[in-house]
Amino acid sequence: MIKLAQFARFNYKTLAELKAKISELKADIELTEDISPLLKKTRIGQYELPNAMVIHPMEGCDGTDDGRPSGLTHRRYERFGAGGAGLIWFEAAAVVPEGRSNPRQLCISKDNLHSLKDLLDAALKAAEQGMGKGHRPVTILQMTHSGRYSKPHGKAEPTFIFNDPLLDEKVGINDDCRPITDQELDELQERYVEAAQLAVEAGFDGIDIKACHRYLLSEILAGHTRAGKYGGSFENRTRFLLEVVQGIRSKVGSGPIISVRLNAHDGLPFPHGWGVEQVEGSEDIDLSEPKKLARQLYEKGVSLISVTAGNPYYKKPYIGRPFDVPVIGADQPLEHPLESAARLMYCANEIQKGVPQAAVVGAGYSWFRQYFANAAASQLSKGNVSLAGVGRMAFAYPDFAKDLMEKGRLEKSKVCTACSKCTQIMRDGGRTGCVIRDSEVYLPIYKEGRGLQGK
Protein backbone atom coordinates (compact mmCIF):
# COMPACT_ATOMS: atom_id res chain seq x y z
CA MET A 1 0.00 0.00 0.00
CA ILE A 2 1.04 3.60 -0.61
CA LYS A 3 0.75 6.64 1.62
CA LEU A 4 -0.57 10.12 0.98
CA ALA A 5 0.92 11.52 -2.18
CA GLN A 6 -0.25 14.97 -3.24
CA PHE A 7 -3.69 15.02 -4.85
CA ALA A 8 -3.79 15.68 -8.59
CA ARG A 9 -6.41 15.37 -11.28
CA PHE A 10 -6.19 12.92 -14.17
CA ASN A 11 -3.90 14.40 -16.83
CA TYR A 12 -2.36 11.51 -18.73
CA LYS A 13 -2.31 11.72 -22.51
CA THR A 14 -0.73 8.29 -23.01
CA LEU A 15 -0.58 4.95 -21.27
CA ALA A 16 3.14 5.50 -20.79
CA GLU A 17 2.50 8.74 -18.86
CA LEU A 18 0.06 6.97 -16.54
CA LYS A 19 2.52 4.12 -16.01
CA ALA A 20 5.21 6.64 -15.13
CA LYS A 21 3.02 8.24 -12.49
CA ILE A 22 2.17 4.85 -11.01
CA SER A 23 5.88 4.08 -10.83
CA GLU A 24 6.65 7.43 -9.23
CA LEU A 25 4.04 6.80 -6.51
CA LYS A 26 5.19 3.18 -6.09
CA ALA A 27 1.52 2.23 -6.37
CA ASP A 28 0.66 -1.45 -6.53
CA ILE A 29 -1.11 -1.07 -9.88
CA GLU A 30 -0.17 -2.62 -13.18
CA LEU A 31 -1.38 -1.73 -16.66
CA THR A 32 -1.40 -4.18 -19.53
CA GLU A 33 -1.95 -3.65 -23.23
CA ASP A 34 -3.53 -7.10 -23.51
CA ILE A 35 -7.20 -6.53 -22.70
CA SER A 36 -8.33 -10.02 -23.74
CA PRO A 37 -9.03 -11.19 -20.14
CA LEU A 38 -11.98 -8.78 -20.07
CA LEU A 39 -13.44 -10.24 -23.23
CA LYS A 40 -13.45 -13.90 -22.18
CA LYS A 41 -16.56 -15.77 -21.10
CA THR A 42 -16.76 -16.32 -17.35
CA ARG A 43 -18.81 -18.71 -15.22
CA ILE A 44 -20.64 -18.17 -11.94
CA GLY A 45 -22.21 -21.46 -10.94
CA GLN A 46 -24.54 -22.55 -13.73
CA TYR A 47 -24.44 -19.15 -15.42
CA GLU A 48 -22.08 -18.10 -18.19
CA LEU A 49 -21.25 -14.42 -18.62
CA PRO A 50 -20.47 -13.38 -22.21
CA ASN A 51 -17.52 -11.37 -20.88
CA ALA A 52 -15.93 -10.38 -17.57
CA MET A 53 -17.24 -6.80 -17.46
CA VAL A 54 -19.80 -5.78 -14.85
CA ILE A 55 -22.07 -2.77 -14.41
CA HIS A 56 -22.26 -1.96 -10.71
CA PRO A 57 -25.62 -1.20 -9.04
CA MET A 58 -25.71 2.57 -9.50
CA GLU A 59 -28.95 4.13 -8.29
CA GLY A 60 -30.72 6.53 -10.61
CA CYS A 61 -33.11 7.87 -7.94
CA ASP A 62 -35.74 7.98 -10.67
CA GLY A 63 -38.40 5.47 -9.70
CA THR A 64 -42.02 6.34 -9.01
CA ASP A 65 -43.41 7.30 -5.62
CA ASP A 66 -44.49 3.71 -5.03
CA GLY A 67 -41.09 2.30 -6.00
CA ARG A 68 -41.69 1.20 -9.57
CA PRO A 69 -39.28 1.86 -12.46
CA SER A 70 -40.01 5.03 -14.46
CA GLY A 71 -39.33 5.84 -18.09
CA LEU A 72 -35.87 7.12 -17.15
CA THR A 73 -35.17 3.87 -15.29
CA HIS A 74 -36.12 1.88 -18.39
CA ARG A 75 -33.99 4.12 -20.60
CA ARG A 76 -30.92 3.52 -18.41
CA TYR A 77 -31.21 -0.27 -18.27
CA GLU A 78 -32.03 -0.60 -21.93
CA ARG A 79 -28.83 1.35 -22.66
CA PHE A 80 -26.94 -0.92 -20.27
CA GLY A 81 -28.37 -4.01 -21.97
CA ALA A 82 -27.47 -2.81 -25.45
CA GLY A 83 -24.01 -1.82 -24.22
CA GLY A 84 -22.69 -5.37 -23.99
CA ALA A 85 -21.59 -5.84 -20.36
CA GLY A 86 -21.50 -9.46 -19.22
CA LEU A 87 -23.28 -8.81 -15.93
CA ILE A 88 -25.82 -6.09 -15.19
CA TRP A 89 -26.26 -5.43 -11.48
CA PHE A 90 -29.67 -3.82 -11.14
CA GLU A 91 -29.67 -1.03 -8.59
CA ALA A 92 -30.65 -1.25 -4.94
CA ALA A 93 -34.33 -1.93 -4.34
CA ALA A 94 -35.56 -1.40 -0.80
CA VAL A 95 -36.98 -4.46 0.96
CA VAL A 96 -39.23 -2.27 3.14
CA PRO A 97 -40.62 1.20 2.33
CA GLU A 98 -39.03 2.81 5.39
CA GLY A 99 -35.60 1.65 4.18
CA ARG A 100 -35.63 3.75 0.98
CA SER A 101 -32.71 6.16 0.59
CA ASN A 102 -34.90 8.65 -1.26
CA PRO A 103 -38.58 8.99 -2.21
CA ARG A 104 -37.89 7.56 -5.68
CA GLN A 105 -35.78 4.54 -4.78
CA LEU A 106 -37.04 1.30 -6.26
CA CYS A 107 -38.84 -1.11 -3.95
CA ILE A 108 -39.24 -4.85 -4.25
CA SER A 109 -42.66 -6.09 -3.21
CA LYS A 110 -45.52 -8.19 -4.52
CA ASP A 111 -47.18 -5.03 -5.82
CA ASN A 112 -44.07 -4.03 -7.79
CA LEU A 113 -43.13 -7.48 -9.05
CA HIS A 114 -44.52 -7.08 -12.58
CA SER A 115 -42.91 -3.68 -13.07
CA LEU A 116 -39.50 -5.11 -12.14
CA LYS A 117 -40.07 -8.03 -14.49
CA ASP A 118 -40.93 -5.59 -17.28
CA LEU A 119 -37.70 -3.67 -16.60
CA LEU A 120 -35.66 -6.87 -16.73
CA ASP A 121 -37.34 -8.04 -19.93
CA ALA A 122 -36.73 -4.67 -21.59
CA ALA A 123 -33.03 -4.77 -20.70
CA LEU A 124 -32.62 -8.31 -22.03
CA LYS A 125 -34.47 -7.45 -25.23
CA ALA A 126 -32.17 -4.46 -25.73
CA ALA A 127 -29.15 -6.71 -25.14
CA GLU A 128 -30.26 -9.07 -27.87
CA GLN A 129 -31.00 -6.25 -30.27
CA GLY A 130 -27.74 -4.45 -29.55
CA MET A 131 -25.36 -7.39 -29.37
CA GLY A 132 -27.03 -10.22 -31.28
CA LYS A 133 -29.01 -13.30 -30.31
CA GLY A 134 -26.04 -15.08 -28.77
CA HIS A 135 -25.56 -12.36 -26.16
CA ARG A 136 -27.38 -12.55 -22.85
CA PRO A 137 -25.98 -10.77 -19.78
CA VAL A 138 -26.36 -12.29 -16.35
CA THR A 139 -28.69 -10.17 -14.20
CA ILE A 140 -28.57 -9.51 -10.46
CA LEU A 141 -31.02 -7.44 -8.41
CA GLN A 142 -29.64 -5.73 -5.32
CA MET A 143 -31.68 -5.62 -2.11
CA THR A 144 -31.15 -2.93 0.49
CA HIS A 145 -32.17 -1.13 3.64
CA SER A 146 -30.59 2.32 3.79
CA GLY A 147 -30.35 2.35 7.58
CA ARG A 148 -29.14 5.64 9.02
CA TYR A 149 -29.32 7.15 5.52
CA SER A 150 -33.01 6.36 4.96
CA LYS A 151 -35.05 9.23 3.51
CA PRO A 152 -38.29 7.60 2.34
CA HIS A 153 -40.14 10.94 2.36
CA GLY A 154 -37.25 13.22 1.41
CA LYS A 155 -35.98 13.95 4.91
CA ALA A 156 -33.82 11.93 7.27
CA GLU A 157 -35.66 9.08 9.00
CA PRO A 158 -32.69 7.02 10.22
CA THR A 159 -32.72 3.41 11.30
CA PHE A 160 -29.45 2.75 13.06
CA ILE A 161 -27.58 -0.07 14.77
CA PHE A 162 -25.59 1.94 17.32
CA ASN A 163 -24.70 5.51 18.15
CA ASP A 164 -21.72 6.79 16.20
CA PRO A 165 -20.38 10.20 17.29
CA LEU A 166 -18.88 10.76 13.83
CA LEU A 167 -22.09 10.12 11.91
CA ASP A 168 -25.11 10.71 14.16
CA GLU A 169 -25.45 14.47 14.03
CA LYS A 170 -25.52 14.65 10.25
CA VAL A 171 -28.72 12.56 10.09
CA GLY A 172 -30.35 13.94 13.24
CA ILE A 173 -29.70 11.05 15.62
CA ASN A 174 -29.62 12.22 19.24
CA ASP A 175 -30.04 10.81 22.75
CA ASP A 176 -33.82 10.58 22.26
CA CYS A 177 -33.45 8.18 19.31
CA ARG A 178 -33.25 4.43 19.85
CA PRO A 179 -31.41 1.87 17.74
CA ILE A 180 -33.33 -0.83 15.92
CA THR A 181 -34.08 -3.75 18.25
CA ASP A 182 -33.02 -7.37 17.88
CA GLN A 183 -36.66 -8.35 17.36
CA GLU A 184 -37.03 -5.80 14.56
CA LEU A 185 -33.88 -7.16 12.96
CA ASP A 186 -35.29 -10.68 13.21
CA GLU A 187 -38.38 -9.51 11.34
CA LEU A 188 -36.27 -7.68 8.77
CA GLN A 189 -34.44 -10.91 7.98
CA GLU A 190 -37.76 -12.34 6.83
CA ARG A 191 -38.32 -9.35 4.52
CA TYR A 192 -34.96 -9.98 2.84
CA VAL A 193 -35.81 -13.62 2.23
CA GLU A 194 -39.23 -12.70 0.83
CA ALA A 195 -37.68 -10.05 -1.42
CA ALA A 196 -35.15 -12.55 -2.77
CA GLN A 197 -37.92 -14.96 -3.67
CA LEU A 198 -39.74 -12.19 -5.52
CA ALA A 199 -36.59 -11.27 -7.45
CA VAL A 200 -36.15 -14.86 -8.60
CA GLU A 201 -39.84 -15.00 -9.52
CA ALA A 202 -39.36 -11.86 -11.63
CA GLY A 203 -36.66 -13.68 -13.59
CA PHE A 204 -33.40 -12.28 -12.25
CA ASP A 205 -30.51 -14.74 -12.31
CA GLY A 206 -29.51 -13.78 -8.81
CA ILE A 207 -29.95 -11.48 -5.87
CA ASP A 208 -27.48 -9.29 -4.09
CA ILE A 209 -27.48 -8.32 -0.43
CA LYS A 210 -26.13 -4.80 -0.02
CA ALA A 211 -23.70 -4.72 2.92
CA CYS A 212 -21.59 -1.71 2.05
CA HIS A 213 -21.12 2.06 2.37
CA ARG A 214 -22.51 2.12 5.90
CA TYR A 215 -26.10 1.30 5.00
CA LEU A 216 -27.89 -0.89 7.53
CA LEU A 217 -26.29 -4.29 6.95
CA SER A 218 -22.87 -2.68 6.60
CA GLU A 219 -23.35 -0.91 9.93
CA ILE A 220 -24.22 -4.17 11.68
CA LEU A 221 -20.75 -5.46 10.78
CA ALA A 222 -19.22 -2.51 12.66
CA GLY A 223 -21.44 -2.92 15.73
CA HIS A 224 -18.65 -3.49 18.26
CA THR A 225 -20.42 -1.27 20.80
CA ARG A 226 -23.90 -2.77 20.35
CA ALA A 227 -25.32 -5.15 22.94
CA GLY A 228 -27.48 -8.16 22.14
CA LYS A 229 -27.30 -10.92 19.59
CA TYR A 230 -26.37 -8.64 16.67
CA GLY A 231 -23.50 -6.76 18.31
CA GLY A 232 -20.16 -7.12 20.03
CA SER A 233 -18.46 -10.31 18.90
CA PHE A 234 -17.60 -11.19 15.32
CA GLU A 235 -20.17 -14.00 15.46
CA ASN A 236 -22.91 -11.60 16.51
CA ARG A 237 -21.99 -8.84 14.06
CA THR A 238 -22.03 -11.23 11.10
CA ARG A 239 -25.09 -13.17 12.27
CA PHE A 240 -27.69 -11.14 10.35
CA LEU A 241 -25.94 -11.37 6.99
CA LEU A 242 -25.10 -15.07 7.30
CA GLU A 243 -28.60 -16.00 8.44
CA VAL A 244 -30.18 -14.01 5.60
CA VAL A 245 -27.98 -15.87 3.09
CA GLN A 246 -28.91 -19.19 4.65
CA GLY A 247 -32.61 -18.29 4.62
CA ILE A 248 -32.52 -17.21 0.99
CA ARG A 249 -30.67 -20.32 -0.15
CA SER A 250 -33.19 -22.55 1.63
CA LYS A 251 -36.06 -20.84 -0.22
CA VAL A 252 -34.68 -20.30 -3.75
CA GLY A 253 -32.74 -23.55 -4.07
CA SER A 254 -29.27 -24.10 -5.47
CA GLY A 255 -29.74 -22.43 -8.86
CA PRO A 256 -29.95 -18.64 -8.45
CA ILE A 257 -26.80 -16.68 -7.67
CA ILE A 258 -26.56 -15.17 -4.22
CA SER A 259 -24.14 -12.30 -4.06
CA VAL A 260 -23.02 -9.74 -1.49
CA ARG A 261 -21.70 -6.26 -2.20
CA LEU A 262 -19.36 -6.09 0.76
CA ASN A 263 -17.44 -3.28 2.38
CA ALA A 264 -13.99 -4.61 3.09
CA HIS A 265 -12.93 -1.43 4.90
CA ASP A 266 -15.08 1.41 6.26
CA GLY A 267 -12.36 3.99 6.81
CA LEU A 268 -13.94 4.94 10.14
CA PRO A 269 -11.93 4.59 13.35
CA PHE A 270 -12.35 1.67 15.74
CA PRO A 271 -14.65 0.88 17.55
CA HIS A 272 -17.06 2.28 14.96
CA GLY A 273 -15.36 0.91 11.85
CA TRP A 274 -15.25 -2.46 10.08
CA GLY A 275 -12.14 -3.76 8.38
CA VAL A 276 -9.91 -1.63 10.58
CA GLU A 277 -7.30 -2.50 13.17
CA GLN A 278 -9.09 -3.13 16.46
CA VAL A 279 -7.19 -0.53 18.43
CA GLU A 280 -9.02 2.50 19.82
CA GLY A 281 -9.08 5.26 17.22
CA SER A 282 -7.27 3.28 14.51
CA GLU A 283 -8.32 3.69 10.88
CA ASP A 284 -5.62 1.35 9.55
CA ILE A 285 -6.83 -1.44 7.29
CA ASP A 286 -7.16 -4.89 8.84
CA LEU A 287 -8.95 -7.34 6.55
CA SER A 288 -8.84 -10.37 8.83
CA GLU A 289 -12.54 -10.12 9.70
CA PRO A 290 -13.77 -9.30 6.17
CA LYS A 291 -11.78 -12.24 4.80
CA LYS A 292 -13.18 -14.55 7.47
CA LEU A 293 -16.70 -13.38 6.68
CA ALA A 294 -16.15 -13.84 2.94
CA ARG A 295 -15.17 -17.48 3.51
CA GLN A 296 -18.26 -18.05 5.65
CA LEU A 297 -20.49 -16.40 3.06
CA TYR A 298 -19.11 -18.73 0.40
CA GLU A 299 -19.75 -21.73 2.62
CA LYS A 300 -23.37 -20.60 3.07
CA GLY A 301 -23.96 -20.35 -0.67
CA VAL A 302 -22.63 -16.96 -1.83
CA SER A 303 -20.79 -17.41 -5.15
CA LEU A 304 -20.30 -13.74 -6.07
CA ILE A 305 -18.75 -11.00 -3.91
CA SER A 306 -18.42 -7.41 -5.07
CA VAL A 307 -15.77 -5.69 -2.98
CA THR A 308 -15.93 -2.00 -2.13
CA ALA A 309 -14.98 0.30 0.74
CA GLY A 310 -15.69 3.57 2.51
CA ASN A 311 -18.70 5.69 3.37
CA PRO A 312 -19.73 8.33 0.80
CA TYR A 313 -21.22 10.50 3.58
CA TYR A 314 -18.13 10.54 5.77
CA LYS A 315 -15.19 12.95 5.40
CA LYS A 316 -13.22 10.55 3.19
CA PRO A 317 -15.54 9.59 0.30
CA TYR A 318 -12.50 8.98 -1.92
CA ILE A 319 -11.93 5.71 -0.04
CA GLY A 320 -14.88 4.30 -1.96
CA ARG A 321 -14.30 5.97 -5.33
CA PRO A 322 -11.31 7.89 -6.65
CA PHE A 323 -12.39 11.18 -8.22
CA ASP A 324 -11.01 14.44 -9.57
CA VAL A 325 -13.65 16.82 -8.23
CA PRO A 326 -15.50 16.42 -4.92
CA VAL A 327 -19.17 17.21 -4.46
CA ILE A 328 -19.86 20.87 -3.72
CA GLY A 329 -18.81 21.85 -0.20
CA ALA A 330 -16.59 18.80 0.35
CA ASP A 331 -12.84 18.93 0.84
CA GLN A 332 -10.24 17.93 -1.71
CA PRO A 333 -9.01 14.35 -1.16
CA LEU A 334 -6.00 13.91 1.11
CA GLU A 335 -4.30 11.52 -1.31
CA HIS A 336 -3.69 10.98 -5.01
CA PRO A 337 -6.58 9.17 -6.76
CA LEU A 338 -4.16 6.40 -7.70
CA GLU A 339 -3.78 5.70 -3.98
CA SER A 340 -7.54 5.42 -3.64
CA ALA A 341 -7.66 3.04 -6.61
CA ALA A 342 -4.76 0.98 -5.24
CA ARG A 343 -6.55 0.58 -1.90
CA LEU A 344 -9.69 -0.71 -3.59
CA MET A 345 -7.63 -3.13 -5.67
CA TYR A 346 -5.80 -4.34 -2.56
CA CYS A 347 -9.08 -5.00 -0.74
CA ALA A 348 -10.54 -6.96 -3.66
CA ASN A 349 -7.32 -8.89 -4.19
CA GLU A 350 -7.18 -9.95 -0.54
CA ILE A 351 -10.79 -11.14 -0.57
CA GLN A 352 -10.19 -13.07 -3.79
CA LYS A 353 -7.11 -14.74 -2.29
CA GLY A 354 -9.10 -15.63 0.81
CA VAL A 355 -11.96 -17.16 -1.20
CA PRO A 356 -10.48 -18.32 -4.52
CA GLN A 357 -13.59 -20.39 -5.32
CA ALA A 358 -15.84 -17.31 -5.40
CA ALA A 359 -16.15 -14.79 -8.20
CA VAL A 360 -14.87 -11.49 -6.81
CA VAL A 361 -15.66 -8.20 -8.55
CA GLY A 362 -13.09 -5.42 -8.41
CA ALA A 363 -13.94 -1.70 -8.30
CA GLY A 364 -12.36 1.73 -8.65
CA TYR A 365 -11.68 1.48 -12.38
CA SER A 366 -13.83 4.35 -13.68
CA TRP A 367 -11.20 6.93 -12.73
CA PHE A 368 -8.80 5.37 -15.26
CA ARG A 369 -11.02 6.65 -18.09
CA GLN A 370 -9.82 5.42 -21.51
CA TYR A 371 -7.28 3.19 -19.73
CA PHE A 372 -9.96 1.32 -17.78
CA ALA A 373 -9.36 -1.87 -19.73
CA ASN A 374 -5.59 -1.71 -19.20
CA ALA A 375 -6.01 -1.50 -15.42
CA ALA A 376 -8.85 -4.01 -15.15
CA ALA A 377 -7.41 -6.62 -17.52
CA SER A 378 -4.19 -6.65 -15.54
CA GLN A 379 -6.10 -7.50 -12.36
CA LEU A 380 -7.91 -10.34 -14.12
CA SER A 381 -4.79 -11.75 -15.76
CA LYS A 382 -3.02 -11.96 -12.40
CA GLY A 383 -6.00 -13.69 -10.76
CA ASN A 384 -6.47 -10.79 -8.37
CA VAL A 385 -10.18 -10.64 -9.20
CA SER A 386 -12.59 -12.61 -11.38
CA LEU A 387 -14.60 -9.71 -12.80
CA ALA A 388 -14.16 -5.97 -13.30
CA GLY A 389 -16.98 -3.60 -12.47
CA VAL A 390 -17.73 0.03 -13.25
CA GLY A 391 -20.46 2.32 -11.96
CA ARG A 392 -19.94 5.96 -12.95
CA MET A 393 -18.37 4.85 -16.23
CA ALA A 394 -21.60 3.04 -17.11
CA PHE A 395 -23.62 6.21 -16.51
CA ALA A 396 -21.32 8.10 -18.87
CA TYR A 397 -20.55 5.33 -21.34
CA PRO A 398 -23.19 2.56 -21.27
CA ASP A 399 -21.70 0.88 -24.35
CA PHE A 400 -18.15 0.73 -22.98
CA ALA A 401 -18.10 -3.08 -23.17
CA LYS A 402 -19.36 -3.14 -26.75
CA ASP A 403 -16.67 -0.69 -27.83
CA LEU A 404 -13.96 -2.78 -26.18
CA MET A 405 -15.23 -5.93 -27.89
CA GLU A 406 -15.66 -4.36 -31.31
CA LYS A 407 -12.93 -1.69 -31.40
CA GLY A 408 -10.47 -2.92 -28.78
CA ARG A 409 -10.41 0.48 -27.07
CA LEU A 410 -12.53 3.13 -25.39
CA GLU A 411 -13.31 6.50 -26.92
CA LYS A 412 -11.78 9.34 -24.90
CA SER A 413 -14.76 11.53 -25.73
CA LYS A 414 -17.18 9.12 -24.04
CA VAL A 415 -15.48 8.14 -20.75
CA CYS A 416 -16.36 9.24 -17.22
CA THR A 417 -14.44 12.33 -16.10
CA ALA A 418 -14.76 11.65 -12.34
CA CYS A 419 -16.40 15.06 -11.87
CA SER A 420 -18.86 13.92 -9.15
CA LYS A 421 -21.82 15.65 -10.81
CA CYS A 422 -23.82 12.40 -10.84
CA THR A 423 -23.32 12.25 -7.07
CA GLN A 424 -24.15 15.94 -6.73
CA ILE A 425 -27.54 15.40 -8.38
CA MET A 426 -28.37 12.75 -5.77
CA ARG A 427 -27.27 15.05 -2.94
CA ASP A 428 -29.54 17.73 -4.41
CA GLY A 429 -32.49 15.31 -4.48
CA GLY A 430 -32.70 14.82 -8.24
CA ARG A 431 -32.79 11.97 -10.74
CA THR A 432 -29.22 11.14 -11.62
CA GLY A 433 -27.07 10.28 -14.59
CA CYS A 434 -24.07 11.70 -16.45
CA VAL A 435 -24.21 15.48 -16.76
CA ILE A 436 -21.23 15.55 -19.14
CA ARG A 437 -21.88 12.70 -21.57
CA ASP A 438 -25.69 12.59 -21.34
CA SER A 439 -26.22 16.32 -20.98
CA GLU A 440 -29.48 16.60 -22.90
CA VAL A 441 -31.22 14.63 -20.14
CA TYR A 442 -29.20 15.36 -17.02
CA LEU A 443 -27.73 18.86 -17.37
CA PRO A 444 -31.14 20.49 -16.84
CA ILE A 445 -31.70 18.31 -13.76
CA TYR A 446 -28.28 19.26 -12.42
CA LYS A 447 -28.94 22.95 -13.00
CA GLU A 448 -32.33 22.75 -11.33
CA GLY A 449 -30.81 21.17 -8.23
CA ARG A 450 -28.13 23.88 -8.13
CA GLY A 451 -30.59 26.71 -8.77
CA LEU A 452 -28.93 27.50 -12.10
CA GLN A 453 -31.94 27.41 -14.46
CA GLY A 454 -31.45 29.75 -17.37
CA LYS A 455 -27.68 29.93 -16.89
Structure characterization notes:
It contains 15 helices and 10 strands. The chain is of the alpha/beta class and 455 residues long. The strands form 2 sheets. The chain has an 8-stranded parallel barrel with strand order 3-4-5-6-7-8-9-10, surrounded by 6 helices. Strands 1-2 form a two-stranded antiparallel ribbon. Helix 3 (71-82) runs parallel beside helix 4 (113-131), helix 4 (113-131) packs across helix 5 (182-202) and helix 5 (182-202) packs parallel to helix 8 (239-252). The mean pLDDT is 97. The N and C termini lie far apart (44 Å). The protein is globular.
Helix content: 25-40%
| Classification by helices and strands | alpha/beta
Mean pLDDT: 97
Which strands sit side by side, in order, in the main sheet?
3-4-5-6-7-8-9-10
The largest pleated sheet is described as:
8 strands, parallel, barrel
Shape: globular
How do the helices and strands follow one another from N- to C-terminus?
HHEEEHEHEHEHHHEHEHEHEHHHH
How far is it from the N-terminal to the C-terminal residue, by CA?
44 Å
Strand content: 5-15%
Poorly predicted segments: none
- Note the total helix count: 15
Radius of gyration: 20 Å
Tally the beta strands.
10
What is the fold's blueprint, element by element?
Blueprint lengths: L14 H11 L10 H4 L2 E3 L2 E3 L3 E3 L15 H12 L4 E8 L18 H19 L6 E7 L37 H21 L3 E6 L4 H6 L12 H4 L1 H14 L4 E9 L22 H13 L3 E6 L27 H18 L4 E4 L9 H10 L5 E4 L1 H5 L3 H8 L13 H7 L11 H12 L5
Parallel strand pairs: 3-4, 3-10, 4-5, 5-6, 6-7, 7-8, 8-9, 9-10
Antiparallel strand pairs: 1-2
Helix pairs in contact: 3-4, 4-5, 5-8
